[in-house]
Amino acid sequence: MSYESPIREPLVTGGKTYADVTRDILRPLENNASKSWWIGFSVSAVVLAIWIAATTWTMLEGIGAWGLNKTVGWAFDITNFVFWVGIGHAGTLISAVLLLFRQKWRMSINRSAEAMTIFAVICAASFILSHMGRPWVAYWPIPLPNAFGTLWVNFNSPLVWDVFAISTYFSVSLVFWYIGLIPDIATVRDRAEGLRKFIYNFFSMGWNGSTRTWHRYEMISLILAGISTPLVLSVHSIVSMDFATSLVPGWHTTIFPPYFVAGAIFSGFGMVLTLLVIGRVVLKQENYITMGHLDAMCRIVMLTGTMVGLAYITEFFVAAYSGVEYEQYAFINRASGPYWWSYWIMMTCNLIAPQVFWTKWARSTPWFIFLMSIIVNIGMWFERFVIIVTSLHRDFIPSSWTMYTPTITEFAILIGSFGLFFTLYFLFCKYLPTINMAEVKSIIPTHAHDEHHQEADHSTIEKGAAHG
Amino acid sequence: MAHATTVQIREEKFIFSDKAKRLAFILMGAGLLLALIGYFTYHPQVEGFTDEQNHHLPIKRLLASILFNGYFFFIIATCAAVFLAISQVANAGWYVAIRRIPEAMSSFMPIGAIVVFGVVFLSLVVFHGGIYHWGHDGVMEADPLLAKKTWYLNKPFFLIRLAVFTAFWTWCATMIRKYSQNEDQIGGLTNFDKTFKLSAAFLVVFGFTFSMFAWDITMSVDAHWYSTIFTIYNFATGWVSALTVIYLITWYLRSNGYLDGIASDEHMHDLGKFMFAFSVFWTYMWTAQFLLIWYANIPEEVAYYKPRMFGSYKFFFYINIVLNFVVPFFIFMRRGAKRSRQVGVFVGTCILIGHWNDVFLMVMPGAMNLAAAVTGDNPTGIIETPSQGIGLMEIGFLGVFAGLFLYITLNALSKANLYPTKHPFLKESILHDTGV
Known about the structure:
The structure holds two protein chains of two kinds. Chain A has 16 helices and two strands. Chain A is mainly alpha-helical. Chain A is globular. Chain A has a single domain (about 20-455), classed as Formate dehydrogenase/DMSO reductase domain (Formate dehydrogenase/DMSO reductase fold). The N and C termini of chain A lie close together (about 5 Å). Chain A has a two-stranded antiparallel ribbon. Helices cover about 70% and strands about 0% of the residues of chain A. Chain B is an all-alpha fold. Chain B has one domain (about 20-430). Chain B has a two-stranded antiparallel ribbon with strand order 1-2. The radius of gyration of chain B is 23 Å and the shape is elongated. Chains A and B meet through strand 1, helix 7, helix 8 and helix 9 of A and helix 8, helix 9, helix 10 and helix 17 of B.
């Protein structure tokens, strides 16, 4: 059992009953799609079409369709990849790390955050495919036995570690998300009829709500949380090693792993806020995703933004302190070279802007939070752009110094990837419950319970709500 | 479950027994004695060193032993204050029953700060360098690489920022303690709110200033070398050690009949989980630093690991991983281990020895090196001294500071109620259940 102090704000407001939870959260599933859903879905689908066209063009034409050159051989593609992988981290953090820390406020946001993780990793993977140039041999980074010749993958390469890290991350996240969905899918099944019932029945995997199923559910959640927690750290650490194991000034720095992880969580929460500030209104979930939730997420954005900022400053300082002129030039070039604007966009969006969340007003004004979440997304995209392009474009030989300018195809793929992401997200909102009903039901304040205990409470300082 | 929400909150004082006091004094006295014996019987005869070079080693070793031991206990005390601040801003409830323990630990901060400042002052000003290679007369000018660092590595700036940072942290910790004790008197939420604001400010300032503090005290011992993750790595060391000390003191109190019905096995379990998790966290930081430097193999950077991994410090290098990762990871993974006093004390002791060794390994190799003329054959101007091992001086000062830390902590613990009786989350903490 657990006890909660009365000074804590309730996690679900509006005096909801168990039946209310089911009704409220299944409303989008059990009714015809609303007009706003159709508008959102159609726009996303159109943007997705842009993605399909641009990616197809890249496949047909080859990497020559992009603005890469001999000096900058890695730019938009990998920026977008790191950006999308980073977005995914908030989902795992919310569902795994916050579970281990027993943060119950995670319960009404974990489902959508995990869905976001999965869709974001899909977007990220698409950039790996498209930047390979020959996507039909995409299985080459997988260490298959010598059936294709005598060569193995280079196990010393962080790119191979990345293949393992991302695929593990994707599969564990998918399983975690799906396991969490099973009780809720069973609820949908119980209320459905006909073909719907058949389909949801199939996906509910025979869930019958018995104690035994719940017991297994709780055990597996805990185990998956335990597995996912190191994954939150490892995935972006290994992504950072794609850069940090090199000798390139600005890339080779030991703070990269934790700094990338902090940045990933920062950008992930930015995206969660973008989705939920809108979603809670459109799906009428204000009583589940309360202002308290937004407040808590704003604090995390402020914390991780400041951590990322500390890492920027540390890098800058240590470059100065190191006395290594290549390192020093890389950082001066970032801040004052031809890409200075991207550096200052990054600094402003990631370090300076989130400091507004020190004020209560900023944390409790939805439109402003939404605006900030977009700023965070922009800032984190530019962070990767800054790291990748500014470190490469002026390399060791000044005669090979050059600029990188993305082509329209690259922009189309970047914008199109949002279409892919949002199309998947809109489908998720329509066909699956966006809030974990089973878990939310466990945190509804039980007021009857509370009164029952009042008399036994006189030896204590205060009273509060108790949950079984 | 009707009874479970009823809790008994009463006044409970820790009595600092004569036996415990004696133990603390014996540790201090015996430690000092050992250290002095160690100092006066240390007549190094390093192969290839001249008599004059050998003559420099005892004072270096003495200063380095005081520094790394003082630093170790100071960061433990500071991280105890950070634990309070983080728990406060995270609105944590579970820890309130044991809150007075980190509060008491943080009262070591003033002494720790004075020790660290004192030994740095002695090194830089009185002994013209001592353990800091860059502090030797003429080194900064003669060494082209160090000459580029004078804007940061210069004695006045170094000492001023050290004094300012440690004074500010100590002040924050003192105020956090004061608010907490004031709350016992008047109740309500005023002190809780004040602590919240102060903690947030403290954490932000700490995040930025601890970076410089770690660069200064331990990284600048190897003045040529640099690593951006070094701060976080140092923090991980102090943080996991502080959690371990909290865990061990809680066991000590509980096994002496204190906190009965207040702190339970549930709290031990959660503290144990923290020790487990942050041991992994430390290993992560260790790996990030080591792997990236090893992989890139840039001479300026790998120079740091050469004496440690392949040279005379090899033993300490490998035992570091065993004590700080292998032991907690494999022994402390099971639920029962974290709730068992015997296993917990064993793992806790390993972690503390491991991190003491870790700090030893950060400071000693660089501190014992000798300064020489910068020449074409020796561009760094450093003559490497092989490891002198862990001897009476290192162990002696461990005793001195462990005794001092214990005395100050237990003494502070006996001054206030053993748990904050009017903390708004006390009841949550007493009824805390890890759920598994």
